[in-house]
Design brief:
- The chain has one domain: Monooxygenase, CATH 1.20.1280.
- Helices cover about 85% and strands about 0% of the residues.
- The longest helix is centred in the last third of the chain and has 31 residues.
- InterPro entries: PQ-loop_rpt.
- This is MtN3 and saliva related transmembrane protein.
Length: about 90
């Protein structure tokens, strides 16, 4: 494995792993009030587009990174949208 491959792997772990603490905190606190819906929508769409690009190129590390990032972001987005619906229903 070349040093550039290792660098890419480390970058993938940090970039993808950055969403884990946020998802964990939301699951524990059940609070999504401070999150931006447009931001997470854009992240999900961007990850999906990167996933399609990587699939076409058969770039499996990029597919894995964006698949996991997209999935974690989608979970956060769904929790955010669900919280909005619950708040609206309670009003």
């Amino acid at each position: 494995m070349q040093w550039l491959d290792i660098l890419g792997l480390v970058a993938t772990v940090f970039t993808t792993g950055a969403y884990v603490p946020q998802a964990y905190k939301i699951i524990q606190t059940k609070s999504t009030r401070s999150l931006s819906t447009p931001t997470y929508t854009m992240i999900v769409i961007g990850s999906a587009l990167w996933l399609l690009y990587a699939y076409d190129r058969r770039d499996y590390p990029v597919m894995l990174a964006n698949g996991v990032t997209g999935l974690l972001s989608l979970v956060i987005l769904i929790m955010k949208l669900s919280a909005k619906e619950e708040a609206t229903a309670e009003s």
